Each structure stands twice: as C-alpha cells, then as structure tokens.
UniProtKB/TrEMBL annotation:
Organism for this UniProt entry: Flavimaribacter sediminis
Xref: Gene3D superfamilies: Dipeptide-binding Protein, Domain 1, Dipeptide-binding Protein, Domain 3, Periplasmic binding protein-like II
Protein name: ABC transporter substrate-binding protein
Location of this chain's protein in the cell: Periplasm
Range of residues in the leader sequence: 1-19
Record-linked Pfam families: SBP_bac_5
Keywords noted in UniProt: Signal, Transport
Length: 525
C-alpha cells in the first residue's frame, strides 16, 4: 500500500496489517477528509464532521442508515407504552472497548452529560430537552418520559452517542481528546488524535454488528482541495470526501478510481442578525455607526434578490446542487412545495433598498468557513460581488470551520454563510434548530445565531413536533416554513450533493448526512 509519502509528510509511521484468526483483513486504510473534527468528545459538537469522527468510536441507541431510516443500534426495540413513556430494550452482550459491560446506567449517565459540555459550539441539549425523566427498569431496559407528546424523540435519540459511565465520570473534553475517556462500543477503538492531523483507529474485533475488514484506519485532515485530490491520484489515500467540483470530471474519467455520490440533506444559506439594533460588522459606507439594516425584511429580501443562485451552482459547483427556497429539502417530510427557490432580480433589490431607506447602501463584512462546505470560500467571494452590484459595499472574511462555528455561536458576525443538515429527514428538525426563538432551557433555536423570532413559527413547529399524525406534522411544518419564508428569516441558497472518491477495488456507502464513516468502506467482492 502506498502510504509512505503521506505518512512521512505528516510525520507519522506507516501501519502494518496483521491478520487475526477468523477475520478477513485487507490493507490498512487512509481516508482524507476536508474538515477535521472539532473534538473527539462525542458531546462537544453535533456538526457532521465531528459526529462522523466519533461515530467511528461510539454508538447511539438508535442509528440512521445511509438513507436516514431509523434502525436498531444499542437499543434493539422501542415502544410508546402510553402517558408519554417510551420503553427501550437495550442490546445485551455489548462490551465497551475496555471489556466492561454496557448497561442502562451508561445511558442515564449520557443523558446527564450530553447537554452540559462546556464551551460547545453546537450543543446537544436540543436532542434531550423533551425528556422529563429517564430511569432504568433493569440493566437492559429503560423508560423515557417526555414533557409533551414527542414522536420525534426517536430521531433525537439517534443523534446522541452513548458514553460509558465508568470511563466518563468526571471526564472533561480534554480527557476524550487525549484518549483517557475515549472508550466506546463502536466498530473502531481510539488510538490517537492529533488536532489538525490524524485520527488513528484500530478495529474492534468484538463489535456487535460484526468487525470491519480493515484492521487500522487513519482519518487524515486535508483541508486543501488540490492536495486531497492529489493524494488520491498518487495512491497515498484510499478514500476522500468532499470531491471539489472542479476535479469531479477528472476523477470520474479515471479508470483507477470510483465515484460515490448521493443527494445531500444540507441546505446552504445566509444567516443574518435580525435581533440587535447595532450589529458588529455593519456600518455606513463612511464607517460610522448605523442602525442594523438587517432588522428590515425589505433589506433581507433585497439581499436574496441580489443572489444569482444558478450561476453559483453552474460556475462554482459544476452543477452539483440545486437552488433552494427553504431550509428543508424536497425529499423531506414537511417540505413546502409552494415555496419557489429565490429569484434573481438585482434591479428589484435596489428598489427595495430605496424603500427601506438605504438607497445609498451600507457596508458589511460577510463571514464564512473555508474548509467545511463545497466551494464555500469561493461562494462567499461570489456573494460579495453580487451584493456590491446593488450598492452594498462588502468585505469578506473566511476561516477554518473550527474557528468559524465558535465565533458564530458567540454571535460575532452580522451576516454569514453556512449550511444546515436535517439528517433526521424532517422539516421540523431545521425549524427547531435554526428558526425557532432561541430558548436554551427548552432546546429551541440552538443554531438560531441570528436570533430570528416569530411566535407563529414557534407555535406551528411545536405542534408539528407533538403530533403522531405524520401528515398533520408535515402540514404544520410546511406552514411554519411559509411564515419564515415570507419574513426572509434566512436566505436559502442551494441543496448540495455529497461526493466521495476512492481507489478502484473499494466500495463506499455514501450517506445523505455527509458523514464519512470508516465502517461504510469495504473492498469490492
């Protein structure tokens, strides 16, 4: 296997595969990923890149398959037994990586820990906020009581990795990052993690779903698109994620490679400060302080009209996306078919700015990540040029995702580019996460970094989450999306495509939720 050059470049020693009796072992594997995890503390960040890293090590009670369908994991069955109580039967015979048995006490410990990790840029509290009580009936049965009728609790449980009580009690995020507490039940064991470098994993031969055919995995952070593609072409890595649009056709035509792609559940959008009277990166063109223009819906609509979504898709994404008009994608339950993708009309945008009192424009700084989404830095630059054409003087600042998200959560930006992934496959997930009024205690609006608030969106979303009638839940979600659309609460841009590439001879299971999982990689039979 051609690992020496990349290992040398990263200051790592090449691995050697050692066969074990009864296990089919292929070569060790190197995976190149565009965005590194923020942490290997499984409860530090629910952003997909961090979730992917820890999902290699930890399991959830319920998991989602590649098509986002709920399937058993550490829980083998679940049933609503009445009065807001759910009974979950836990998988017996499962052991932690250190050999200790998995029990209901680990689940209860996880429920206490997950919402309370300090300094989380994307906290897990929203996924457990509806639980009023959780108790162990026996070692392999738990009862969960929800505050309100909550059919969505099963989707929420699929988001929360279960950690061991014996390893996790008293453990801080640093203890997970250095391996002291990184004891999971998942398909791979933690070996080491070098932030900005490599997450090294070793196969869990006792994994309850069956062991991987690969003994060792290196997941290498490779934020530079050209370098990541070059590493695949040279044979230094076996799989890469986030195939850059400009390289797609070259890789697709290469007989020594395979392309794996699937529609994405992520919607790219612009988030705006719709709350503060004075916003940190908005001034008059002479630099003087002004009232925040983004408080005015006409200004937000003007910004949307300034964006040529199709041009961005065609020129920067090689056509691997489609224009968006709402947060939920067209395959999701609760998608509103009456909402059209945002129109492109810069002349109308100028009229709206004049009506709003900003005929002469103003000055903004547009922020975004430069290693998280497809063509993200280029898209931010393109948006700046489009805003300039309607009279808004626009500066650009991009940064690595692990810097961008904490700053965004601290509300350091006025207008910024990012994406939301409704991996649960339902519209209410995005409504709750991004568009409901921020309420930390109730778990509402944890990613509402612009602090948009509309009581009607809140009411409709809560009703949607509380009904067991799937059709009614979809109708309520669609109605809530319509309210937010008319407010221009956010500016949806596009739904992107997930694309991976591997060496010939490998098979990869592409996922709609963007996660790059080592367990999804195998050799072609």
């Amino acid at each position: 296997m051609k690992m020496k050059s990349i290992m040398a470049a990263l200051g790592l020693a090449a691995m050697t595969a050692v066969a074990q009796p009864g296990i089919s072992v292929a070569e060790d594997v190197v995976i190149g990923v565009r965005t590194e995890a923020a942490s290997v503390d499984p409860h530090f960040s629910y952003v997909a890149t961090s979730k992917a890293a820890v999902t290699n090590i930890f399991d959830t009670l319920i998991m989602r398959d590649k098509d986002l369908q709920l399937t058993p994991a550490l829980a083998t069955s679940w049933e609503h037994i009445g009065d807001g109580v759910w009974e979950l039967k836990l998988r017996e015979g499962v052991k932690w990586h250190d050999g200790e048995p998995f029990t209901a006490e680990d689940v209860l410990f996880t429920f206490e820990r997950a919402p309370n990790v300090p300094n989380s840029p994307a906290p897990f509290g929203q996924f457990l906020s509806q639980i009023s009580e959780a108790k162990a009936v026996d070692d392999h049965t738990i009862h969960i009581t929800t505050r309100n009728p909550s059919p969505q609790i099963l989707f929420d449980l699929a988001e929360v990795p279960i950690v061991s009580k014996h390893a996790g009690e008293g453990a801080a995020t640093a203890d997970y990052n250095d391996g002291k507490a990184t004891i999971g039940t998942g398909p791979f064991k933690f070996v080491s993690w070098q932030p900005g470098g490599t997450l090294r994993l070793a196969r869990n031969d006792d994994y309850w779903a069956g062991p991987s055919e690969f003994e060792n995995i290196d997941i290498v952070a490779m934020p530079n698109d050209a370098s990541r593609v070059a590493a695949l072409l040279s044979g230094d890595v076996d799989l890469i994620d986030s195939v850059p649009p400009e390289s797609y056709e070259t890789l697709e035509k290469d007989d020594g490679l395979e392309i794996w792609k699937t529609p994405d559940v992520y919607t790219a959008y612009l988030h705006m400060d719709t709350d503060r009277e004075v916003s940190p990166f908005i001034t008059a063109k002479d630099g003087s302080e002004i009232k925040n223009p983004l408080l005015n819906p006409k200004v937000r609509e003007a910004l949307s009209l300034a964006i040529n979504r199709q041009a961005i898709i065609d020129r920067l994404m090689n056509g691997l996306a489609q224009p968006a008009g709402q947060l939920a994608g067209p395959t999701m339950t609760g998608f509103n078919p009456d909402i059209e993708p945002g129109a492109y009309d810069p002349e109308k945008a100028k009229v709206l700015l004049k009506e709003a009192g900003y005929e002469d424009g103003f000055k903004i700084t547009l922020h975004g990540p430069n290693n998280r989404y497809v063509a993200d830095a280029q898209i931010v630059q393109a948006l700046a040029q489009m805003f300039e054409r309607i009279g808004i003087e626009t500066e650009v600042e991009t940064m690595p995702a692990n810097v961008f998200f904490p700053r965004g959560s601290n509300r350091e930006f006025s207008i910024f580019f990012l994406a939301w992934g409704s991996a649960q496959g339902t519209a209410w997930h995005g409504l709750r996460g991004v568009l409901m009024t921020y309420d930390k205690e109730k778990g509402y609006g944890p990613s509402n970094r612009g602090r948009y608030s509309n009581p009607e969106v809140d009411r409709l979303t809560i009703e949607s989450m509380s009904t067991f009638d799937v059709d009614e839940a979809a109708r309520l979600s669609a109605e809530a999306a319509g309210v937010a659309f008319r407010d221009f609460a956010i500016i949806p841009m596009h739904y992107q495509m997930n694309v991976w590439a591997s060496k010939k001879g490998f098979e990869y299971e592409p996922r709609q939720d963007q996660m790059t999982l080592a367990y999804g990689l195998s050799t072609q039979q």
